[in-house]
UniProtKB/TrEMBL annotation:
The keyword ATP-binding does not apply. The chain crosses the membrane at residues 6-22, 29-46, 52-69, 76-96, 102-124, 131-149, 169-187. This is Uncharacterized protein. It comes from the Bacteria.
Length: 202
């Protein structure tokens, strides 16, 4: 069932943010608000001629604009170029999977999530911008896919529940990668501290 994975992962994230993160963490409240709003607006769509766009995609763009509003001009320009690159990659992947699915050797959602996360590592250096850029690239790429398919009278809804499932999987992998990196640095720091506390350490 489309959307089930999105809601399942969203509620897991809400529980973690509510009960397992510090109340002083500055991203805690904004992330909770974003998650609740996305879960509410995901049911609604805007139809314009042959184009159908889910409200969740529009809200993601609003959240991205708020997040990047304080970037310097060169940082903003680099972010925009990187997002367009990621969106083109997403759009090409989706078109190939729809028009010629024979080349897909693995599950489409996992292959898309792994590919986009690897691409985001190359395009975005900062971890916070990387996650935001990944979501913006997927949202813009899905709109581009819907526009192109509407030109050939193929029904496609941008930001559908299927897209939300793919976005949740990609975001989950990105978050897991960030957490593994943090755990690795913490373990390395503890190992160095233990070595310094050994007798005879110089």
């Amino acid at each position: 069932m489309d959307g089930l994975f999105f809601y399942w992962l969203s509620w897991i994230a809400v529980i973690i943010l509510l009960f397992f993160t510090s109340k002083s963490w500055r991203f805690r409240f904004p992330l909770l608000i974003h998650l609740f709003v996305l879960m509410v607006v995901a049911r609604y769509q805007i139809n314009a001629s042959e184009l159908s766009i889910n409200l969740s995609v529009i809200y993601i763009f609003i959240a991205v604009f708020i997040h990047i509003r304080r970037l310097r001009f060169m940082q903003l320009a680099g972010f925009v170029v990187s997002v367009f690159t990621a969106s083109m990659a997403y759009c090409c992947f989706q078109l190939y999977s729809i028009l010629d699915p024979v080349w897909l050797l693995f599950d489409k959602s996992w292959l898309l999530a792994i590919s986009l996360n690897y691409l985001s590592l190359l395009l975005f250096s900062a971890k916070s911008i990387r996650v935001v850029g990944l979501m913006a690239g997927m949202a813009l790429g899905d709109i581009m896919t819907a526009i192109l398919l509407s030109k050939v009278s193929m029904p496609y809804s941008a930001g559908s529940f299927s897209w939300l499932d793919d976005a949740a999987l990609s975001l989950g992998l990105a978050t897991a990668g960030i957490m593994l990196g943090y755990a690795s640095r913490l373990l390395q720091a503890q190992t160095i501290q233990m070595q310094k506390e050994r007798p005879g350490y110089e």
